Amino acid sequence: MDSFKEQIVRKNLSQREKMSKYFLMIASVALAAACFLFVVGTPYMMLGVLFAGLALFGGYHLTTRMDVEYEYIFTNGEVDVDKITAQRSRKRLVTFKCSSCTAFGKVDDSFNEDDDSALVVASAHDDELNDYYAVFKHRELGKATVIFTPEAEMLTLMVKALPAQIRRDALKLLDDIETYEEEE
To answer: Using an 8 Å Cβ cutoff, are 9 and 69 in contact?
Structure first.
């Protein structure tokens, strides 16, 4: 029987990223106003309007590029992680088979990042949601670690596809999720 699950997670902006976004908005409006005001009453007015429009469009384009979502697709033991920027461009970050995982768990205080592995961060950066990691062998990246925020159903499918040795430890995560859901 085929197993398939899709999940989209919106990345929360950090305080610094929010400030950058506001700064870009203000700067683009100020630049547009300056372009327009400096040419009012001159023969270059159409050129000023064009530059003002370009400044506003550029500011809009740059601020919307900060809106990021991650899509996780689980298909028969294989996980695809895509990055969707401003709901208009998609980039495949990594694809891995759960059977090739050498470690899997919850990102917490005991998680320490391996310096030798390539790190792919595709998490929601939300304090209310749990982040998980998967360490696996990748044909292009070598040893790689992905940090992501799957929901319970996606996590259940992934744990079932893990190698037996890792699955035993990962089943504890599922017990924790079921206990958490019952408390809510």
So the answer is: yes
pLDDT digits (tens, 9 = 90+) for 71-114: 999 999 999 999 999 999 999 999 999 999 999 999 987 777 77
Task: Return the pLDDT at 171.
Answer: 85
Question: What are the backbone dihedrals phi and psi of residue 146, each rounded to the nearest 5 degrees, phi first?
Answer: -115, 135
| pTM reported for the whole predicted model | 0.84
E-strand stretches of 34-167: 68-75, 78-85, 89-97, 101-106, 118-122, 132-138, 142-148
Between CA 84 and CA 67 the distance in angstroms is 8
Give dist(CA 84, CA 109) in Å, integer: 29
- Nearest CA-CA partner of 134 in 155, 164, 109: 155
Name 166's bridge partners.
Answer: none
Sheet holding 118-122, edge to edge: 101-106, 132-138, 142-148, 118-122
Q: Which residues contact 160 (CB under 8 A, 6 or more apart)?
A: 3, 167
Range list of H helices, the chain = 15-37, 45-64, 152-161, 164-183
Is the pLDDT at 68 greater than 50? The verdict is: yes
Better pLDDT: 42 or 33: 33
